[in-house]
Amino acid sequence: MAVSGLAMGVIDTIANIQLVTIYQKDSAVFLQALHFFIGFGALVSPLIADPFLSDTGCGNHTGNGTEIMHHFRYMLRNSLIAEHNITQSHLPHEGEAAESIVHYAFWIMAVINLPVPIVVLLLMYREQLIPCCLSGTTSLLNKDELAMERKSNKCCFACYNLSYVTFCSVTGHGDIFSCCRNDNLRTLPASFFAIHVLGGMVLFMTDGIVGAYAGFVYTYGVSPPMSLPHKTAGYLASIFWAAITAGRLLSIPLSYRFQPVRLLMFNLVGAIVTVLMLLIFYTSSTFLFVGTCLCGLFLSSIFPCMLAYTEDILDYQGCATPVLVTSAGMGEMVMQVLVGSIIHTEGSYSFLLCGVTIACIGFILFIALLLFQRMHRNYLTGTSKKSAIVEEPAAEHNGSAKTERNEEKERC
């Protein structure tokens, strides 16, 4: 599971970086599409596994064993982490009267994912990017070389006119972290680092809410004062992921029409209001389902919007993307542990109280990000004016020299 998680983390980071690098100003639309498929996979995978989990037929198991199987079936809809932990701990083992067939679900998911590496390998072979299959210049490399020829006499002016950095090379995309090397750290403004930190902290909080809500809404639903039936509460997480998937699909055209910062403001405020209403109407099972749907809709597009917005502030250099992706993953990991511990000690009511607190902290951090974005923009404006003042005398000097040479030619 650790190796699988490591591989998925690499794929997630590279996919986001490539979309930002390729589409830049238009990356918000494509990031929404990418994260729509992520939510779609999270919605479908538990539904694939569900038919292979049985509530009956536990043979020599006691009543507790049957209850554990019943509990596991609905916990699977809530958390992928719980899926693997409970599978190893509580399912019947070999030699017992009834064996679990849950491993068929993993084989099905593997077969569904198999075409992806096959298509990637075919593309690499077609473009002759596999080392053992190189036979000449490929069309993909020709495009890179053509781009390099256009930029052969130019240098990427990175870090906002603070230092010259060559980003591109024929063999790859170059070093996207060049602006953060020791040579440039002294000249970088404080707002540059603050934008990275605050953007990462906002995603730490919001993705933490997503992980905690998906992981513990079932626990909240079956606990007093809600006390829903297990089967009914099991649909809450599925509704939450379905709302996230629908929200990301809806955000694709919205990202084309509205700026990411406006969508971020709207979604953060909507998430706070929704969780606050859930806290007020904590005894209403109907509003729990409605609030779960609304919460998924508002939280769905925060990650891709924040990624597009932060990279837009930093001129699409790609340095912020790994920071934001890592912060979001850490938020999902840490907040589930933190909220789960609080629920265990303080009771299920603290679940929604934690949600309101985390959402408010995320909104405050976002307001701080807006302030530092304005400071950073003012800094860039001042830097560009200084550059223009320095370049103007040089241009005047060159112009006067050309005039003198032309006059001398006319005299000759």
From TrEMBL:
Record membrane topology: Multi-pass membrane protein
Region (Disordered): 391-412
Biased composition (Basic and acidic residues): 402-412
A Pfam family the protein falls into: MFS_1
Molecular function as annotated in GO: transmembrane transporter activity
Entry keyword set: Membrane, Transmembrane, Transmembrane helix
Main location: membrane
Transmembrane segments: 28-49, 104-125, 191-213, 233-251, 263-282, 288-309, 321-343, 349-372
Gene Ontology CC: membrane
Localization annotation: Membrane
Family classification: Belongs to the major facilitator superfamily.
Name of protein: Major facilitator superfamily domain-containing protein 4A
